[in-house]
UniProtKB/TrEMBL annotation:
<protein>
    <recommendedName>
        <fullName>SnoaL-like domain-containing protein</fullName>
    </recommendedName>
</protein>
<dbReference type="InterPro" id="IPR037401">
    <property type="entry name" value="SnoaL-like"/>
</dbReference>
<feature type="domain" description="SnoaL-like">
    <location>
        <begin position="11"/>
        <end position="131"/>
    </location>
</feature>
<dbReference type="Pfam" id="PF13577">
    <property type="entry name" value="SnoaL_4"/>
</dbReference>
<dbReference type="InterPro" id="IPR032710">
    <property type="entry name" value="NTF2-like_dom_sf"/>
</dbReference>
<feature type="region of interest" description="Disordered">
    <location>
        <begin position="158"/>
        <end position="182"/>
    </location>
</feature>
Amino acid sequence: MDAERMARLDALLDRQDIADCIVRFARGMDRFDRALFLSAFHSDATIAAGPFVGGAEALYDWATGLHEAGQEATHHNLLNQTIEIDGAQAHVETYYLFVGRNRDATNWVAGGRYLDRLEKRAGHWKIALRTNIIEWSGVVPTLPLPFADWPGITANGVSRRDGSDPSYQRPLVNNRPAHVPE
């Protein structure tokens, strides 16, 4: 393989590792998976998110407390992303859409961008600095979850904010019988 192609493959692998890092943050927050969340940050990272400014461990404690008190479920949806790599440093902009199903029967929706500086240390890309730009927010009414009263709908599991969430099941299996609605 020629050197140019090898360099492109190395850059592609770095981009994928960076994108995976950002996903670990989001999934770790939504599933209340502390280890997964912290794996996205260097231990000396600084994060500025809303009124919070500090390290990753303190952010996790503050944010999960906020989400647990206010919401039954949260989704940190990651959208458009630009990644600029310069050696062992990368600057990443990730658009996001946050949705929280609130305990007061409303849904909170917000959009913005994560601006991250990642550093590759000991072969691993992690966030060294994050700032959160919140660009809009709103509340929308809650509707009943679709098919919530259908018999057996929860046989494959229900949303949980811990390791019992169906997304952690390995191997993933289907526990529902075949059924085609009329």
